[in-house]
Fold this protein.
Amino acid sequence: MHLDAGEALPTAAGDVVRQGEDLGRWVQSVRLGWDQLTTVQQWMCEQVLGIEPASEDEKPKPRRTQADKWAMNYAAARQFYEREGHLQVPRKHVERIVGGESQEEREHKLGAWIGNQRSRAATLTPERMELLSAIGMQWS
C-alpha cells in the first residue's frame, strides 16, 4: 500500500508507521536477516520491493562471548601483574589495555573482576585456576 501510494520505502526505524507497523524497522530486519529468508522471499524483496541485503559494514558486530570477556580480563590481570608484580588489585581499580581485532583501548574493572574470580574459585575450570595462579593469584 505504501509503495502503491508512490512513497519510497523507509530505511530507518520510526520513519513510517502504517496500520501500527513500523515499515522502517521491518525493512531493516529484512536487510539484516537476508540470509534467513528463502530464495523466493529474497527475490520478492529485491524485484518487487527494491530491498537489497545489508552490506557487511551495516551489519552489527558479533557479540563477545563470555570466554572472550574472560580472556580480555585475564589479559588485563596479566598486564597489571607484569607492571606491579602482584595481583593485590584495589577493588575499584580500572585497567586499560589495548586489544581485540580493532586494537582499541578498553577499560576493565580489574579489581572487581579479581575479587569475583577469588569468590568463584570453586567453580572455575582447572585451566583458568592455573592461568591465574601462574600470574600470582592468591586465592584466600
User: Anything to note?
Assistant: The CA atoms of residues 32 and 55 lie 9 Å apart. The chain has a mean pLDDT of 90. The beta strands are 17-18, 21-22, 95-99, 104-108.
